Amino acid sequence: xxxxxxxxxxxxxxxxxxxxxxxxxxxxxxxxxxxxxxxxxxxxxxxxxxxxxxxxxxxxxxxxxxxxxxxxxxxxxxxxxxxxxxxxxxxxxxxxxxxxxxxxxxxxxxxxxxxxxxxxxxxxxxxxxxxxxxxxxxxxxxxxxxxxxxxxxxxxxxxxxxxxxxxxxxxxxxxxxxxxxxxxxxxxxxxxxxxxxxxxxxxxxxxxxxxxxxxxxxxxxxxxxxxxxxxxxxxxxxxxxxxxxxxxxxxxxxxxxxxxxxxxxxxxxxxxxxxxxxxxxxxxxxxxxxxxxxxxxxxxxxxxxxxxxxxxxxxxxxxxxxxxxxxxxxxxxxxxxxxxxxxxxxxxxxxxxxxxxxxxxxxxxxxxxxxxxxxxxxxxxxxxxxxxxxxxxxxxxxxxxxxxxxxxxxxxxxxxxxxxxxxxxxxxxxxxxxxxxxxxxxxxxxxxxxxxxxxxxxxxxxxxxxxxxxxxxxxxxxxxxxxxxxxxxxxxxxxxxxxxxxxxxxxxxxxxxxxxxxxxxxxxxxxxxxxxxxxxxxxxxxxxxxxxxxxxx
Length: 553
Fold this sequence. Notes:
InterPro entries: FAD-bd_OxRdtase, FAD/NAD-bd_sf, FAD/NAD-binding_dom, FAD/NAD-linked_Rdtase_dimer_sf, Pyr_nucl-diS_OxRdtase_dimer, Rhodanese-like_dom, Rhodanese-like_dom_sf
Low-confidence stretches: none
Mean pLDDT: 96
CATH topology of the largest domain: FAD/NAD(P)-binding domain
Pfam families: Pyr_redox_2, Pyr_redox_dim, Rhodanese
Helix content: 25-40%
Cofactor: FAD
Strand order of the largest sheet: 3-2-1-7-18
GO molecular function: oxidoreductase activity
Structural class: alpha/beta
Protein name: Rhodanese domain-containing protein
């Protein structure tokens, strides 16, 4: 059997390696039009910033490696021009000498990847404008920095890569301005979590423009749609990627709803003996079952392995994605998985939302606060999604949530997880468990929550409401929610006679725990409708205005 794989990097090389493990006798050839067959794309921002000192560290495997270890013929700088599905032949161009030749296959795998999106901005092709998708892009940026010594950079787009490069450019002493057309940074997050990221960026000296599009780039300036101009010696476009599907379309391969290649759970396309994997394919979401396009290196490796297994007689199958992601910027870790609140509402879920602010381990062991947003389905109690921002322990918690959501855990199940505990690693009740407890209380125990954005709307509409600040007097006098009355938790049983038990009531403290205790007192004394402010005053003061600016509701 002759297997041809078009494209390398994560998916193509994984497919080749798995196919070889299953079938020692198969002929396996990879064609890739790039110079590099395998590289760590996620490490590129750190080479630009100097944390990774040698570019070779990101490209440890070359054609000779794959030949010696897997007996796979890798031909870089070779572009597949077209494929004849009926005759199972392909036309290939050697980009070094221009020679065009034919090849044949029994099984074909498309691993053509994705390309950076170039937005319709005048001047986007200037010599000072870059994208960052492959090693060639990385080397061009590094060379430009070393030669031109830019003092000011503008990054258009605030996804993972954009923010990682932002940190690394700042580390080189380059002033950075971020431009995002949406009303918030980090579009994958809900607004009430994105605010923590934006605030952190500003505290680290990054200028941030949201709700603005760049319309023109000149030699040393970027012009925004509102007429403002920003000095820019270097411009980086990080507004997303699009699947490379031109070859697939010319062959008659069907595309999906997201305009990426449509495959089944075995990586099969609509054409016999034609498979696809990696960033060029459409995936489906674990929760909704609907098509999504989430190009990630981890998913590319996984789908490549599945394709290589299936074409050599294996029975692996794809089980979908949750859209999990994590990145770090200026020491702040940002992670997400599952459905955002906005996405869950769009899907028709009646959502319960909590904001859990807890240290990753005891404060006496140097614990640092993280903010965990949990999104659950009120009807079933199923956990739908989680977003976390914090300095330490974020990766550990997001992976627990990923596992729970994958296996359809309900919020009440999180409390019962037998998680590892010792003071250097966690609190006795881990933040994961607390998140489950808060959501379980809200959904199943009648301890309702109200978000900062919702409360701000209620206050703005002057609806009839009574708000109880359960903190001590000094905290209340320093700052408090508008119209709130101060009834410290220790005195609430005496003072609650001043409240009307028939009026909607909101309790709060600094982060939520004492607010919940106050809520319990009122409910147990006949108050009919009592809400605890999710994340307490700390979250409210941080997010109320931001949520009004870009409310998911």
